[in-house]
Specification:
The chain is an all-alpha fold.
Amino acid sequence: MDAFTAGLLQRIRATETDLARARDEGDDFLVEVEEADLDELRRLAAEHGVEVGATSV
């Protein structure tokens, strides 16, 4: 796995964790921000052929 792929997957996992935390805390604004970030990271992964796999969020 190259550095780009590893970094992208790490950012996706971190964003998923942040999204779960925002949901748990009931922070609707932060949920929207994290969802947008996650969508963008997943789009970037798809564009570069990076398989993300199943997510917990």
